[in-house]
Write a structure and sequence with these properties.
Distance between the termini: 4 Å
CATH architecture: Orthogonal Bundle
Order of helices and strands: HHHHHHHHHHHHHHHHHHHHHH
Shape: globular
CATH class: Mainly Alpha
Oligomer: single chain
Number of domains: 1
CATH topology: Hydantoin permease
Helix content: over 70%
Number of strands: 0
CATH superfamily: Hydantoin permease
Strand content: under 5%
Structural class: mainly alpha
């Protein structure tokens, strides 16, 4: 019996465990219906969104020219694809979500540490996306009814409306996400292309749009901006690179998820980032200033119905990425805290509430706070988690897990009262070295490379502290 066919057997023998609920259970083979297109569409729908646009446009605002910004985005997404595919393997192989996968390296209870760190970052992203969606709704209403701009609570009302729409999708469940991706991905790419063509027409062609030179006078100046920017790009998807098993557990095969992700992520992120780069450059010609927020650009289109169509497209994209990237993982992570009490839907609702409490408007105050504080900052926690997971799964265990033991106390993943302190120490070491750059100015480079430093330090510490490869029995065939 193969790993794919044993998922149902595993589920039937662990249902009495306190570490089990149906949302965290291994996915049975008959429920694994996601194919190459589904994973390509997943990344198309998650990449075509306002934060992607702002990531690239922020680099233009910070001084890069269009080719420098585009290269940074492409390289960062190729780099983050590597841990993405590595962590995805366990989900497709065993049908398990991220917090259950983390039990192998952190212990059945210790897995809550990386899971909650990941969940809090996702809550912050949920808040950011919801705030942006509310702004888009507000801009759309103002375009149709200019008097709405005088309504003091208008923005707050739109924010709540979009929050409620997200909650509705959460309550509908994971299959709604697959449906939304399938119908929206091609449409969203078309809208992005039309926006690019509009900017080209208004600016007088791609030549003027892309003629803005780099503000950096030397390679050293550029490099000092490039490194944290590259780390920010990696950090942008460092969240999903951890919880990708939440999606690949539904994969029909390893090939489906690997090919779909490799086709969907770098190409779409680079393409949509180019739109952000080109349109931001065009705003300097069209409006006399660089506008890095696309909601503000679209609000100036002039034609109210053009504004409405554009805002609807961005709202669809924002809803897609918000639920797929920022709800699935934390919902499972919160569920992992108390599987018997917290379902996927309850975990999703907790995500929605915590996201509001993280005050997303402050994270979007400027391109600097968005890229260098938010993206680079949290990557210092997520890089070390990836280092521990990948070292444990590929180097120590050679991709072999005892699936049933991931769901029970007293098994080989119990370690010391449910905690594997080697994993916890490695995580702390990686994060500690990365963040020392914030305290010791001469070591600032460690923070600028936060994800990379954290990953390699935690990987090395975990490997050094593990006494020998774990002897894990193969599942019975």
């Amino acid at each position: 019996m193969s790993h794919l066919d044993t998922a149902a057997l595993h589920a039937s023998t662990i249902e009495s465990s306190s570490l089990y609920n149906k949302d965290l259970a291994p996915v049975a083979s008959e429920r694994r219906r996601w194919r190459t297109y589904n994973y390509a569409a997943l990344w198309i729908s998650m990449s075509v969104n306002i934060p992607t646009y702002m990531l690239a446009s922020g680099m233009i605002a910070g001084g890069m020219n269009w080719s420098q910004a585009l290269f940074t985005v492409f390289l960062g997404n190729v780099l983050v694809l590597i841990p993405m595919l590595l962590n995805a393997h366990a989900g497709a192989q065993y049908g398990i979500p991220f917090p259950v996968f983390a039990r192998a390296s952190f212990g059945v209870l210790g897995a809550n540490i990386p899971a909650i760190l990941r969940a809090l970052v996702a809550c912050g992203w949920f808040g950011i996306q919801t705030w942006i969606g509310g702004e888009a709704i507000n801009a759309m209403i103002v375009a149709l009814a200019p008097g709405w701009a005088k309504f003091h609570s208008g923005a707050a009302v739109c924010f709540v409306l979009f929050w409620l729409l997200n909650v509705f999708v959460i309550l509908r469940g994971i299959e709604t996400i697959r449906f939304l991706q399938g119908i929206s991905a091609p449409f969203l790419l078309l809208i992005g292309l039309l926006l690019l063509l509009w900017a080209r027409g208004k600016a007088g062609g791609f030549g003027p749009m892309l003629s803005t030179p780099s503000k950096f006078q030397s390679f050293g100046e550029f490099f000092r901006f490039f490194i944290p920017s590259l780390t920010g790009v990696v950090g942008f998807w460092a969240t999903v690179s951890l919880n990708i098993p939440d999606f690949t557990r539904y994969a029909r095969s390893q090939r489906d998820q690997m090919v779909g992700q490799a086709l969907g992520l770098p190409a779409t992120m680079t393409f949509y980032s180019f739109i952000g780069i080109a349109v931001t450059s065009a705003t300097m010609i069209i409006f006399g200033q660089a506008i890095w927020d696309p909601v503000k650009v679209l609000a100036r289109l002039g034609n109210p119905w053009a504004v409405v169509v554009a805002m609807i497209a961005l709202l669809m994209a924002t809803l897609n990425v918000n639920v797929a990237a920022n709800v699935v993982s934390p919902a499972n992570d919160f569920s992992n805290l108390s599987p018997r009490r917290i379902s996927f839907r309850v975990g999703g609702l907790l995500t929605a509430v915590v996201g509001l409490l993280m005050q997303p408007w402050k994270l979007l105050a400027s391109y600097g706070s968005y890229i260098f504080t938010w993206l680079v900052g949290y990557s210092g926690f997520l890089g070390p988690i990836a280092g521990v997971l990948i070292c444990d799964y590929f180097v120590v265990r050679k991709t072999v897990l005892a699936a049933e033991d991931l769901y029970r106390r007293g098994g080989q993943y119990e370690y010391l009262r449910g905690f594997h302190w080697t994993g916890v120490v490695a995580l702390a070491a990686g994060a500690g070295v990365a963040f020392v750059g914030l305290i010791v100015s001469p070591l600032r480079v460690l923070y600028d490379y936060a994800w990379f430093v954290g990953f390699f330090v935690s990987f090395g510490v975990y490997f050094a502290l593990m006494p020998k490869p774990a002897a894990v029995p193969q599942a019975a065939d």
